[in-house]
Amino acid sequence: AKENGRNTFRIYTKDLHHDLTEKLEMLKRLRHAIEQEKLVVYYQPKIDFNSRRIIGMEALVRWIEDDGTLIGPDQFIPIAEDTGLIMPISDFVMRSALAQLHEWRELGFTDLTMAINVSGKQLHSPDLVDNVLDAIRRAKVPANRLELELTEQVFIENIQSHTNFMHSIREHGISLAIDDFGVGYSSLAYLKNFPVTSLKIDRSFIQDLPGDKDDATITQTIINLAKNLDINIVAEGIETEEQVDFLLERDCNIGQGFLFSRPLPAEEITRLLEQYQGL
Ligand code: C2E
Ligand code: CA
Ligand code: CA
Ligand code: CA
Question: What is the pTM of this model?
Fold first, then answer.
């Protein structure tokens, strides 16, 4: 038994050491990727179900390795949040997305909105509002074309600085969306206290529609809630026409998902815009 115990211990420390080494290695590569500008922003269109037109974009960051491998944000955003690297990454995404919006506007697509994901960690920076406003001015785009997507966690924390941030963002005409709505520990009171302009129904509620009764009820309830509070509603992760029908019948008219388009590099989105939104 003694032998066994010692072996277990040895295996355990070895794993721990392995995890740590892997994390540090990842961190080193990520830092390098930022310096070498190996990050790119992809865009996923937001669609108006009735007209089937693209009304806006969500910016989603990717990391492209030297051999062309694409690494998704789920694999590096958490580590970036833990190490402060989220700041340079966010700056990069904000600059790229707003410059791209400007380019699309120059091509005549002036109605598009641009949504950018903001990490809760960024809200700890007192300069965030100034940085956002500065980025808007530099890109020469109107503030009311920008939307910031915040996850529910940020709203629940209900810290005075967060509240201040949201109010001053709204005062400048920038929109505020709650991302992944419904998956957090919802205290619905925050909807009353924060100047939210839209709710994004999480993909986990959409994926089994229309068959799953519970998900149908939850989705219907979120839509009603948004309507009664006069907040816009957006459905995420739409993959089938049946899901679109379900949502349309319940008066949710806007969404994004693989059914319409995966997130794509800017050039491919430009082609989509030119094809379907010819001027
Ligand atoms: P999110 O903000 O909830 O973004 C939606 C995710 O769902 C994206 O994954 C998108 O590719 C995926 N998606 C969209 N439509 C469908 C669909 O029909 N089916 C399925 N299965 N998936 C769909 P992605 O790009 O891997 O991003 C994952 C998460 O990483 C995002 O979730 C967001 O929280 C975070 N993220 C991405 N870019 C940024 C960024 O620039 N800054 C920050 N702070 N976080 C980011
Ligand atoms: Ca989002
Ligand atoms: Ca989401
Ligand atoms: Ca269920």
Answer: 0.93
